[in-house]
């Protein structure tokens, strides 16, 4: 039999169900595939499908689960102020967090292609992904502490602030009520009566702890008059153990050194001096009369304690910053994989045509990366809708209502006030918000596969 005859007989044998067809199809039978998929299907049914269906069912009953209330829980959900606060914060999260993390990941991914120590950089940026959200929340709860000695963020801010505008040496100092000193608009003090060359004034202050006096203070000494100068003494008018005379420099009272004194006339500072260790000073080079003696505001400037990161105003931006720290590595890795797949010929062609690096990045790199950027953005959006851990750990109890999100509200209602009906309604509402983003993501994956 020739080869041609053999080939012509093969279809007939197949139609007759002969040996050439085997079982009539390629691959295992459907029941065998179903057998291997059964464990996964059971797992999904128990841990995904059943909880969803039960949540929908439970949302139609009251808090104890004994009375059917229909859609009352959904109506009550949208009449609570806490729900609208949580929904508002979720909108802020969706509008800010995915975009910020995606942009940060894009910047980091581009940097890793241009620096020599890219591997170490990737490890450092991606390392937070290896830390649980609970641990990350604890870390940033400490970072955002108000006390600069404990909170890293305020420690950095106060260090810069003290470098630019140092804290005054006597932030708590103040005059006695009967002393003719009045507070100026800038925060300092001035004598109510004008002074002239040849005058000697006494400026007693209180409210200063002896341990906080800078330098090596000496017992206060009454200043002597000088021709053509205004002299005086600034001292701590307080005697330990009681006693002494108010407004008089007693032997046991010390001067206040390094305190800036100014002579002002017609709104301008014409002479300055600093008090000595015994509190004395001398403003020289003065002519005429009608000077105002002023204790500069810089002497009394309060120490800057930083920002209230965990207060009602900044609590949500602070938590978003922690979210950026955790997820920037995830975005960087995905975007870096997309960058490595971009044809280098397209980039080189743009450079040959005279495009700058910024134009190459904006008009070539970003458009080619748009599918990857969209995947990262939508994935982060899904996770943002379900954010819970960072908000629960970072936000103090006093401002948790201001940082509330839907997932946290669902937990507080279900296990805080123990209203399982309303909590289930919140869970269903959160699911309804997440499902469109998931469908969009799945459809994108399918389009890319085809």
TrEMBL record:
Name of the protein described by the UniProt record: Lactose transport system permease protein LacF
Localization terms from the record: Cell membrane
One CC-aspect GO term: plasma membrane
Keywords for this protein: Cell membrane, Membrane, Transmembrane, Transmembrane helix, Transport
Residue ranges crossing the lipid bilayer per the database entry: 31-53, 91-111, 123-144, 322-343, 364-385, 421-440
Protein family (similarity comment): Belongs to the binding-protein-dependent transport system permease family.
Transmembrane keyword on record: yes
Membrane association type: Multi-pass membrane protein
Any matching Pfam family: BPD_transp_1
Residue numbers spanned by region Disordered: 1-21
Compositional bias ranges of the Low complexity kind: 1-18
Top-rank lineage group of the source organism: Bacteria
ABC transmembrane type-1 domain boundaries: 87-441
Lineage of source species: Bacteria, Bacillati, Actinomycetota, Actinomycetes, Streptosporangiales
BP term (GO), one: transmembrane transport
């Amino acid at each position: 039999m020739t080869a041609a005859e053999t080939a012509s007989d093969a279809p007939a044998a197949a139609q007759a169900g002969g040996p050439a067809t085997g079982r009539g199809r390629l691959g295992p039978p459907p029941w065998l595939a179903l057998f291997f998929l059964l464990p996964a299907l059971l797992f999904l049914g128990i841990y995904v499908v059943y909880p969803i269906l039960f949540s929908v069912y439970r949302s139609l009953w009251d808090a104890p689960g004994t009375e059917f209330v229909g859609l009352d829980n959904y109506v009550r959900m949208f009449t609570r102020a806490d729900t609208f606060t949580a929904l508002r914060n979720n909108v802020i999260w969706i509008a800010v967090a995915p975009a910020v993390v995606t942009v940060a990941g894009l910047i980091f991914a581009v940097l890793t292609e241009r620096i020599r120590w890219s591997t170490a950089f990737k490890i450092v940026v991606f390392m937070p992904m290896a830390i649980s959200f609970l641990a990350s929340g604890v870390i940033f709860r400490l970072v955002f502490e108000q006390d600069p000695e404990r909170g890293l963020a305020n420690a950095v801010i106060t260090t810069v602030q003290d470098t630019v505008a140092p804290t005054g040496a006597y932030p708590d100092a103040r005059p006695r009520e009967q002393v003719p000193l009045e507070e100026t608009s800038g925060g300092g003090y001035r004598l109510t009566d004008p002074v002239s060359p040849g005058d000697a004034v006494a400026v007693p202050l209180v409210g200063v702890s002896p341990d906080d006096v800078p330098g090596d203070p000496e017992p206060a000494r009454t200043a002597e008059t000088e021709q053509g100068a205004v002299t005086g003494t600034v001292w701590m008018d307080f005697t330990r153990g009681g006693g002494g005379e108010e407004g008089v420099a007693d032997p046991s009272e010390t001067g206040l050194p390094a305190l800036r004194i100014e002579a002002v006339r017609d709104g301008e500072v014409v002479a300055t001096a600093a008090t000595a260790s015994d509190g004395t000073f001398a403003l020289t080079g003065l002519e005429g009369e009608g000077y105002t003696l002023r204790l500069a505001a810089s002497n009394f400037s309060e120490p800057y304690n930083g920002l209230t990161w965990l207060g009602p105003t900044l609590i949500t931006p602070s938590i978003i910053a922690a979210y950026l720290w955790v997820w920037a590595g995830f975005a960087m890795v995905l975007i870096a994989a997309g960058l490595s797949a971009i044809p280098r010929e397209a980039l080189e062609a743009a450079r040959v045509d005279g495009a700058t690096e910024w134009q190459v990045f904006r008009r070539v790199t970003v458009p080619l990366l748009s599918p990857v950027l969209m995947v990262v953005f939508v994935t982060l959006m899904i996770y943002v809708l379900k954010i819970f851990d960072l908000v629960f750990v970072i936000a103090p109890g006093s401002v948790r209502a201001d940082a509330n999100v839907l997932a946290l509200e669902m937990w507080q209602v279900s296990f805080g006030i123990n209203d399982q009906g309303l909590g289930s309604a919140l869970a269903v509402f959160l699911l309804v918000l997440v499902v469109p983003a998931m469908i969009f993501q799945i459809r994108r994956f399918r389009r890319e596969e085809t």
